[in-house]
Amino acid sequence: MKPILTALATLLLCLGAAGAGPPPAQAAPPDLSQARRFVTYGPRSFSVSWNSITDATPTGIRNDLTLLRPWFDGLVTYSANHGQELIPALAKQLGYRAVILGIWDPRSQEEIDHAIQAAQKFPELIIAVAVGNEGLYTKRYQRQDLKRAINQIKRACPQLAVTTSEPFFMFLKGENQAFFRSLDLLMPNVHPVFEPWFKPSEPRHGVEMVLNVATKLQETYPSLPLLIKETGMPSGLAASGFTPARQAEFWTELLRRFPFSPTCSLACFEAFDAPWKPKTVALNFPGNHANEAFWGFFTAAGQPKPVIKSLPKLSPP
Q: What is the reported pTM?
């Protein structure tokens, strides 16, 4: 009996080592042209107030996605829990063509499990998983947290592209480039409005920056697809120089000039205004962040802004 138990123990140890081993080789790059137009999406029924979270509701998500669908057929999400794990199934029902599924906290096993389950259930819809958003920059988590989550997802879904999102300058630092090259996709955030030289009265200068950054990233990482996850201009506050008209000018110019291809795309940032964001942003960056409430292409009440009217509608699903 003892030799049998010893052999069984050895087998279990080997299986455990295999499960903890390195991830498979990089997945095939996702086809970013699968969606004709991406938008970053957080449900209007979801909100954060200090440490209190209001979960997204199925009805709220369905209403949001129905409202967005005439203009967008690709979604980029931020989280896979607090109700947002329902997004893939509802997006599938409503005729969306591609979803890049976000995980907010790489240390959350619940989010990882939800992402894996969704990717396995909707393999033709979910083209990538983005683990984390600007958490290395804000020190919300560590690189080893990202690696652990990415490895787990890739072992469960070897063909699925997995990545993370950080401010664009993080991708250009030499000490970070080996890590970013190990991913399947680049998803930087490129925000001209946070640059000291930016003036809201000159949206086209911001457009030039986004185009230049895209070119630099493609030169630095020629083998990786690029999807700019966040960029744009808020539509308010007017006292800061941000207006709906200037937001529309920025996006009209950027979408006209951006070099869209199966390996290069961007997401419109973002679907809806989020009045709860300024206080949440202030937890990491002290100061007045009132403009953070107004990035949406639609208001929090679901009314289209001038920027949405500048987009041609897509054909029905």
A: 0.91
